[in-house]
């Protein structure tokens, strides 16, 4: 027999009130449009228990005790990669709780432990963690005005035929291989280009196409052709600016360091494995999302479209990204040097 729907307390109160003024169960059922059985059961429950509310102990008894649940949660937290089946088997052995995988999932959900795919982030070893923590500590008191003097830079790769991230389709069963429901892929994204760019709180600098493998010779040419004009544009009234770059070998080559010194360019000491601290990474993501609306014909057209979207970046977007730097430093310190959510 299927389980009947419980009446709300307001309806139960109305039933008792109508019965109290002398109406019959049949009359009350007709007036409130509920079954006569429900009227009779409500009257009987009130007389027997003095209440119409749900009684404690109704329903199936819970398979596990609070102590069992805590043991399951401890087991899960000790190794977050365990499968539901492994946790179920371990629970049965350690606490003699025999249940389904669904019950295990429900207990974990009650504790806020939802199954998620791990985010892919650069691996940070102990030395790198300490360097990140030291960097954040050295810059924890920097204001937005201090960060406004920094010219952030980096390279990024753009593919001719990228597969959009988190692509979802709505389709009917059996349509998985329908042409409209496929996401075609090609090797290496159909070809790609490497692009260097820079920006500061005041706006974007130049972007430059890096043809071939980036080495110290190409990087110096990039700095001469794009960094210097960008700095002149973004810091026209002062030479008091700091250049930020990561620790790619071609960036830290002796010839590059010598060129920087000859140009009187002050560089920022940057911790390794720290793209989450560089706001230009967020800017590249903005550009790549916009590029999903384009279908470049070739690599030359791809670079032209990137230039077009780069030029469309607003000063407000740049300002917001640089204004996040004090929060990033605080987040690194809170997270003890590990990757942060940026």
Automatic annotation (TrEMBL):
- Signal peptide start-end: none
Molecular functions per Gene Ontology: DNA binding
InterPro entries attached here?
A: Homeodomain-like_sf (IPR009057), RNaseH_sf (IPR036397), Tc1-like_DDE_dom (IPR038717), Transpos_IS630-like (IPR047655), Transposase_5 (IPR052338), Transposase_Tc1-like (IPR002492), WH-like_DNA-bd_sf (IPR036388)
Report the residue ranges that make up the Transposase Tc1-like domain in this protein: 69-141
Q: Where is the Tc1-like transposase DDE domain?
A: 150-301
A GO biological process this protein is involved in? DNA transposition
Q: What is the protein's given name?
A: Tc1-like transposase DDE domain-containing protein
- Taxonomic source organism: Amphiprion ocellaris
């Amino acid at each position: 027999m299927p389980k009947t729907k419980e009446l709300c307390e307001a309806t139960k109160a109305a039933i008792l009130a109508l019965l109290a003024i002398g109406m019959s169960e049949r009359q009350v059922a007709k007036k409130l449009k509920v079954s006569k059985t429900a009227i009779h059961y409500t009257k009987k429950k009130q007389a027997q228990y003095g209440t119409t509310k749900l009684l404690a102990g109704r329903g199936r008894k819970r398979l596990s005790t609070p102590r069992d649940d805590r043991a399951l949660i401890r087991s899960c937290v000790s190794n977050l990669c365990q499968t539901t089946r492994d946790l179920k088997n371990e629970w049965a052995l350690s606490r003699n709780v025999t249940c389904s995988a669904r019950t295990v999932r429900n207990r974990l959900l009650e504790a806020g432990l939802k199954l998620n795919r791990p985010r892919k982030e650069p691996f940070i070893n102990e030395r790198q963690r300490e360097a990140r923590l030291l960097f954040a500590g050295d810059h924890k008191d920097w204001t937005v005005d201090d960060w406004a003097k920094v010219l952030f830079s980096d390279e990024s790769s753009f593919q001719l035929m990228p597969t959009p991230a988190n692509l979802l389709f709505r389709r009917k069963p059996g349509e998985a291989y329908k042409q409209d429901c496929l996401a075609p892929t090609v090797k290496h994204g159909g070809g790609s280009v490497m692009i260097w760019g820079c920006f500061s709180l005041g706006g974007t600098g130049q972007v430059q196409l890096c043809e071939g493998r980036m080495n110290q010779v190409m990087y110096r040419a990039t700095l001469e052709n794009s960094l210097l004009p960008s700095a002149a544009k973004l810091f026209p009234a002062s030479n008091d600016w700091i250049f930020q770059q990561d620790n790619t070998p071609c960036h830290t080559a002796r010839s590059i360091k010598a060129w920087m010194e000859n140009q009187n360019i002050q560089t920022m000491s940057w911790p390794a494995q720290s793209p989450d601290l560089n706001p230009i990474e967020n800017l590249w993501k903005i550009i790549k999302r916009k590029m999903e609306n384009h279908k470049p014909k070739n690599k030359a057209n791809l670079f032209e479209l990137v230039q077009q979207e780069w030029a469309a970046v607003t000063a407000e977007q740049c300002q917001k990204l640089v204004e996040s730097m004090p929060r990033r430093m605080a987040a690194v310190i809170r997270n003890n040097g590990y990757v942060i959510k940026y």
